[in-house]
């Protein structure tokens, strides 16, 4: 039996579905939640909600939500804990309560559909495929198998998510992504895809990327850059993506203070490095971090750092020193080279 038919049976017995996105959801998470909502409608669930916490601040993500017209609602922990028995709780593109989401630890989850590495998943229905390049690929497989009615919004959402998650079929891509994209091509809106692929960029985002370039240090093929405080959380992965294009750089790690936490984004094309494991090893004792071999992220609460500084300049000097030292130790880096 195809996994989606087990999911179909589970959904058929529910009256309500709560789909929880991970913090600061990206197109892969949003499109997957959108598709799961369509599946819920098709099997007869009267009410479903797509919930998120954090921010949708990346210009591409904002355009995605607005142009695809995804109905998102802010996440309320109380609503999840007090949900009726006939309600199901689903995670897409993440897997464990309390990890990259605001769901209280220990909360029972009914459905998990994800492609990120994780060994602690518990749910009634689990479809966890680390080898797949995008969660949207799995959901595309579902809508095909169930013959869900397709329209331009759903087709465009899934195709854009797969393209974005794999960096245009260059990162973590498998034959499943090509197969899904070939099928989705007939259902997607080409003009909308182009619009989503070229959103306007704010001056603040450009400034953040410029700061990452200015503050870079390079050791071997590893680049580390701290950018201070920024309101542009989603500029960090954009900066990491850009910095890996510099000659001689195979691994780029960018971190900065966003609100009351230190956000980290990393990219690597070095086959010797699993960047998700590197971040986990460096920061799991003080925050949450991890991801794939080529792409990872994390967050460390400011916590004790803030007690030793009276202004942002002093605070970030401490943060920069500690974060860089942990990364250098975990990567076993040696002498600094020219920047």
UniProtKB/TrEMBL annotation:
It comes from Halorubrum lacusprofundi (strain ATCC 49239 / DSM 5036 / JCM 8891 / ACAM 34). GO terms for molecular function: nucleic acid binding. This is Phosphoesterase RecJ domain protein. Residues 17-161 form the DDH domain. Pfam families: DHH (PF01368), DHHA1 (PF02272). Residues 221-302 form the DHHA1 domain.
């Amino acid at each position: 039996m195809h996994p989606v038919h087990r999911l179909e049976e589970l959904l058929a017995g529910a009256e309500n579905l709560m789909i929880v996105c991970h913090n600061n959801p990206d197109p892969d998470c949003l499109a997957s939640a959108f598709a799961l909502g369509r599946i819920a409608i098709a099997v007869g669930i009267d009410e479903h909600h797509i919930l998120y916490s954090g921010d949708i601040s990346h210009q591409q993500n904002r355009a995605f939500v607005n142009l695809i017209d995804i109905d998102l609602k802010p996440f309320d922990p109380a609503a999840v804990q007090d949900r009726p028995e006939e309600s199901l709780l689903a995670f897409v593109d993440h897997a464990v309560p309390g990890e990259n989401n605001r769901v209280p630890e220990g909360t029972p989850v009914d459905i998990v559909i994800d492609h990120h590495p994780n060994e602690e998943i518990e749910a009634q229905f689990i479809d966890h495929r680390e080898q797949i390049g995008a969660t949207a690929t799995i959901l595309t497989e579902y809508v095909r198998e169930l013959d869900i009615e397709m329209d331009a919004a759903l087709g465009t959402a899934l195709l854009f998510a797969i393209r974005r998650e794999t960096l245009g079929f260059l990162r973590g891509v498998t034959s499943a992504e090509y197969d899904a994209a070939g099928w989705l091509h007939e259902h997607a809106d080409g003009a909308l895809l182009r619009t989503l692929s070229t959103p306007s960029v704010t001056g603040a985002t450009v400034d953040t990327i410029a700061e990452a370039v200015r503050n870079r240090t390079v050791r071997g093929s590893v680049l580390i850059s701290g950018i201070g405080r920024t309101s542009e959380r989603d500029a960090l992965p954009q900066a990491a993506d850009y910095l890996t294009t510099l000659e001689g750089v195979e691994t780029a790690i960018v971190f900065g203070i966003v609100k009351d936490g230190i956000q980290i984004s990393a990219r690597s094309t070095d086959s010797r490095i699993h960047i998700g494991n590197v971040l986990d090893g460096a920061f799991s004792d003080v925050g949450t971090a991890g991801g794939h071999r080529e792409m990872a992220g994390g967050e460390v609460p400011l916590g004790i750092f803030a007690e030793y500084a009276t202004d942002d300049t002093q605070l970030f000097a401490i943060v920069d020193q500690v974060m860089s030292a942990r990364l250098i130790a975990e990567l076993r880096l040696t002498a600094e080279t020219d920047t």
